[in-house]
C-alpha cells in the first residue's frame, strides 16, 4: 500500500468527524475550544461564517455531526455539539459590527430569490457583500421560510429567529413579502442576471382513505396546520388528537397540539418505533409531554358519525425485513383497532411542487417532477436559474439548505462574471504545529472522562400552557464549559515524519487506545488491518500509513479511536510525531 | 505535559482469561525521558503478564535505584512492589521470595545497579537460583545520574558527552552462565516480538531467569559512537532463532517443520519453540552458549534471543528444602513447635 498522502486536504478533513459530517463543514472543534475559552463572540462568528444561523441551528439542527462524533465511538455519547453552538449564540456580545460591510456602489448585477428560507438567505448573505442587488420574494409576510412557519416557538423563539434573519435582511435586500411568484416566465422577463429558487418543499402529503372527504373540517395537513398556528390563524384544537406520521413534523404537531388544548394526544405511525424518521431526542421530548407513540398501526379509515369525525380504524402490522434490509409491513390477523378522536393531523410526508414554473421555458424536470440540476453547481438546464435547499433535491433540513446556498452563491457569482461555473474553488486549509515548549501544546490535550451533560429543561407544566415558552433552557456557562471539555480536538492532527523516527516504540506503548503499529508493509489494506495492535474493524475510518522506515517497516495508525491526546507526540524523543492543527474551511464567494 | 493517561481504552480491546484488559496491567504515566528504552521494556512486561493472564495481586516487582529501577511504578500498578536501595534488589527479593514462594517475582535493575554497585549481590543471587525473573535494562550508562559510563559499556564506546570507554565491559549473560544460571537470554527493548515471548518464558521458568535487555538511553547514550544506541543495536543484532512461547493448556497453532525448531518443555506444561536461525546451537549446552556469545562479540555482533535453558532447574526452595507452603502462611504453632519437638531433635542428635 502507498503511504498516505497527507497533503491532500481531504485526508485530515475526514479525521475531523463532526466537521466532515456537517453539510456546511462547520469547523466544530475550533469553535468548541473558543467556547471553553469563554470567547463566545469569536465562536459565534466562526459558526456564522459557515452556517449563517448559529442561534437557530443551536436549537434545531438535525445535527448529522453528532452521530459521527468520535467521542461516540470512544464512550457512549457524542459531544453535545449542537447545544454548544447555542451556548456561543446565547452568551455572545453584540456582533453587528463584525458583520460584513455592504458596498454602497453596487456591481450592477441583479439577482432574484424565490422564497426567503435558509437557502435563499444564505445566497443573499454571500452575494450582498460583493455588491449584488438582491430581490427576495416570499408569499409569507416575514422572512425565514419554514424556520418561521413550521418550527414551533417552544423550540425556536421568535427573537432568535428574527435576529439572525434580520442580520441578512438588513444588508439591504429588497423584500417582496406577501408575494407569491406565480410564473417563472414573468420573473425571467424582469431582466434579473440570475434567479435562485429556494421555494422549499411546500406540499404536505394527504391520506386518501375512506371518510377523508366527509370529515374534512376535522382533518388537517400537518405543515399547513403548523403554519396556521405560527401565524396565529389557529389557536385551539380538540381534546382528543391523533397525529399520523413518524417524522419531525409529526413530533411538532403533537407537541403543539398539547399546547393548544389537546389533552389526549397520540402519535400513530405505520412503522416500528425504531424506524421512525424523527430524531431520537424529538421522540423523547414528545413522550416526556405524555404523548404515547403507537407504532405498527396502518390507518384504515376515518370513522364519521352524524357528519362528525369520531375516530379512526387502524390495522396492526409487523415489520419484516428481507436480506437486503428492505422492509415490508405484514398485517397481523387481528381485528382493526378503533381510536377515538376529535381531530387528526396528517404528517406523513412532504413533497416538492413547482406549479408556478412553466414547463416550456427551458427548465427541464425529471420523472419525479424535480428540476434537473448539476449536483455541484445547482445550475438548472436554464443556465441563469439555480436551485437550492429543499427545492433542489427534496426535503432535508436547514443546514443542508445553507450548504446548498453557499455553493449556489459561488455558481451565481461565477455565472455573472462570465466564468465557468463548474470550476469550483478549493477549500482553504492550514496545518500548523501546536507545540509551545518541550511537551506543551497550545490546546488542552487532557481527555476528560465526563459523560454527556443534559440540557436543562423548563418546567413541564409551564411549557405545556404557553406555546411561546422555550422548553430547552440551554447550557449555562459552567455546563457549557464542562461539555466543551469533552471535545477531543479531532482537528489537532497527529502528523508523522518518518525521517525523524528512530523506531523506539514509545508511541506504541503510550497510546491509550493502541492506535499505532509498526509492521511490515502489505499490499492489501485488509491484510494490514489484521496485523494492527488493536482490532481495526471500522472500515469507514482510514489507516494513516507512513513511508518505509530504516527497518523496512511502516508506521500504521488507525484513525478510528485516536483520542488526539498528544501522548504519542509527548513520548516521542525526536518529535517525529507532532500535533498540528488543521483548519479546513469551505471557500465562500465572500470572505468574512 | 500530561500527568495522567486518558481513562478510555480501545472499545474492542480484548480481555484475557481473567477478564482483564491489557491496560489493567499498566502503571502510572511514565516520567522517564521520552523515547527511553526502559518504557518499552515496561510495555513488554505489561503485555507478557496480560497474555499469561497472571493475577496482578500475585505478582511482586522489586527494584534497586536508577531510571530502570524506577520503572516498576509505570507497570503493574495493581501488584506488590518494593523499590529498594542501589544494588540491593537481590537481597530484598531473596527475603520476599523466602517468605512467600507463591508469588511471581519480577526484579528490574539497571546495568549500573547490577554490574557495578550490585555485582556482589547479583552473583550470589544467581548462585542460589532464586525463583525470580531478573531483568537488566542495559543502556551502558548511569542514566539517572546523567550518563556516566557503566561497567557494561563496551571498550571504545562513548556516550554523548564522554570520551571512548577505556575499560573492558562485563557481559552479564556470560557472568550468569558462568555462575550457573539455568535461563539466560538477551534481547532489545526495540524488539517486542522477541522480548515478550522471552519474558513469558522467563516467568514460567521454575528458577532464576536472567534477561539482559539492551535498552537505549536516548538522552545520554544514543549517539554516534555508542554501541548501545537504537541504530547500532538494530544493525548489529543477531538472534539465536525466533522464540515462540506457548503457555500450558494452550493449543499449539503454529506448525513447525521437522528439525526446523528446538522445543523445550517446561514442568508446568508450557513449551518454548525456538525456530532455527543462522546461529543455532543446542540450547541446553552451556559451553556452546558461552562460545556463541564470545564469538559474536569478537565479530562485533550482539547475540540475542534465548541463549541457554535448563528446564530441570531446582530453585532455592528445593535445594534447601523449605516448607512447601509460604512461610507467611505458617501459624505460630507451626513456627514454634512444642518443647517436645525440641526434645525429640536433641534426642536424635545424641
Ligand atoms: C414541521 C417541520 C419542522 C422542521 N424542523 C426542522 C428542524 O428542527 N431542523 C431542521 O434543520 N429542519 C427542520 N425542518 C426542515 C426545514 O425547515 C427545511 O428543510 C428548510 O427550511 C428548507 O429551507 P429552504 O430554504 O429550502 O426552504 P423553506 O424554508 O421551505 O422556505 C421556502 C419559502 O419559499 C416560499 N415559497 C415557496 N414557493 C413560493 C413561491 N412560488 N413564491 C413565493 N414564495 C414561495 C415559502 O413560503 C417558504 O417561505 C422542519 C420542517 C418541517 C415541515
Ligand atoms: C548507594 C548509592 N550510590 C550511588 C547512587 C547514585 N546513583 C543513582 S542511580 C545510579 C546509577 C544507575 O545506573 P543504572 O542502574 O544503569 O540505571 P539507569 O539509570 O541507567 O537505568 C547511581 C550511581 C545511589 N543512589 N546510591
Ligand atoms: S470529539 Fe470534538 S472534534 Fe471530535 S468529532 Fe466530536 S465534536 Fe468533533
Ligand atoms: S494522539 Fe497519539 S497517543 Fe493519543 S490516542 Fe491518538 S495516536 Fe494514541
Ligand atoms: S536518562 Fe536515559 S535511562 Fe534515564 S530516563 Fe532518560 S533516557 Fe531513560
Ligand atoms: Mg543504565
Give an overview of the whole structure.
The complex is a heterodimer of chains A (592) and B (350). Chain A is α/β, with parallel strands linked by helices. Chain A contains 22 helices and 22 strands. In chain A, the strands form 6 sheets. In chain A, strands 3-2-1-4-16 form a 5-stranded parallel beta sheet, with helices on one face. Chain A has a 5-stranded parallel beta sheet with strand order 6-14-7-8-9. In chain A, strands 10, 11, 12 and 13 form a 4-stranded antiparallel beta sheet that branches. In chain A, a hairpin with a 5-residue loop joins strand 11 and strand 12. The relative contact order of chain A is 0.15. Chain B has a single domain (22-328), classed as 3-Layer(aba) Sandwich (Rossmann fold), CATH 3.40.50.970. Helix content of chain B is 30%, strand content 19%. Chain B contains 12 helices and 13 strands. Chain B has helices at 37-51, 67-70, 89-99, 111-115, 119-128, 172-178, 192-204, 230-236, 286-298, 316-320, 332-335, 339-349; strands at 59-63, 80-83, 104-110, 133-138, 141-142, 148-149, 183-188, 209-214, 237-239, 241-246, 261-265, 271-276, 302-309. Chain B is globular. The model of chain B has no long low-confidence stretch (mean pLDDT 93). Classes of the chains: A alpha/beta (592), B alpha/beta (350). Chain A binds chain B through residues 73-75, 438-440, 445-447, 449, 502-506, 508-510, 512-515, 534-535, 537, 550-551, 561, 563, 565-567, 570-574, and chain B through 1-2, 4-14, 22-23, 30, 33-37, 39-40, 42-43, 189-190, 192, 216, 218, 222, 230-231, 234. One iron/sulfur cluster binds next to loops of chain B.
Key descriptive features of the protein:
heterodimer; A: 592 residues; alpha/beta; 5-stranded parallel β-sheet; 22 helices; 22 strands; 29% helix; B: 350 residues; Rossmann fold; 8-stranded mixed β-sheet; 3-stranded antiparallel β-sheet; 12 helices; 13 strands; binds flavin-adenine dinucleotide; binds thiamine diphosphate; binds iron/sulfur cluster; binds magnesium ion
